[in-house]
Amino acid sequence: MRTPVSGVKCQVSGGRARIPHSGGWIASRYELGDLLGEGGTSVVHRAFDHDLRRWVALKLYALERALPFSPQEVRLQAQVQHPNLMPLYDAGVDAEQYVQYLAMPLYPGDDLETILRREGPLPPRRALNCVDQVLSALDFLLYRRGAVHGDVKPENIWVTRSGATVLMDLNLARALSEEPLGGTPGYTAPEVFDGQLDSRADVFSTGCVLYYALCGQPPFRSNDEACFSTPPPPSAFGSDLRPELDELCLIALSKEPEWRFQSPREMQGTVRHPYLLTGAGRRGRLRRGRRGVLATIGRLAKRCFRAIPW
User: Fold this and answer.
1) How far apart are CA 47 and CA 31, in angstroms?
2) Which residues of the chain have a pLDDT value below 70?
3) Which of 23, 173, 181, 229 could disulfide-link to 225, CB 3.0 to 4.6 Å?
């Protein structure tokens, strides 16, 4: 039985949901095929849409309670058109299976979480290219839609075989969280737990993704660590990781939002700078002011200096 996105109250024995396996059906429309990826809150299956006779990627969320997607969230994802944002074909709730689903294009590739678990740390150039595309998507959401993603993490980043990076979910996962503003443990900016959410929270989460891609492990394993701990610098994990990458991650992972890059666009300007990979052009970088890593650190240091009660 297919239930509209606008809302449904579901009952489930034992209090827990079970996500169907390959060969099962969702909403009497999607026949599940191979498992493409699996994360902490969802799984992605190759599925055949019998209504429109096409293959899709079907992302399934097990419901622990009746929390349907809000129409606003579904409408946002359905309307956006950007090469680094995943289009949405369909969304809904299957009351019999007790799952919510998103139907999306089937792009050959894997989610970044699967890639990192399989391959380990990525080469710096590849990691920066991936994050660069994520920041393009976040910049589009912010300036074209006035929205933030709210749940940037490797599980929500799809990397195609050609190297294109596509951001998924557009805050849909937030509606499934135990804490409405909680996000994913280890990827949520500290201020979010005080009810503050803006693009700088997405910058923090993207910094976590970059750190994971460079080092092969997330900077934080829990919300407590994200709020109170400082991870080792990326350069501690490999000789090919330049100190400038330490500075980039340090800024993005700052506990105070005022100390971070103030928007995805500002972080992207630094991510694209060749000095992060080659060390060349240091003098030119300093002349570029806000665009350079050291210039950004200098700007943040001035803020800290002014804040000291002399």
Assistant:
1) 5
2) 1-22, 40, 64-70, 72-73, 171-182, 279-310
3) 229
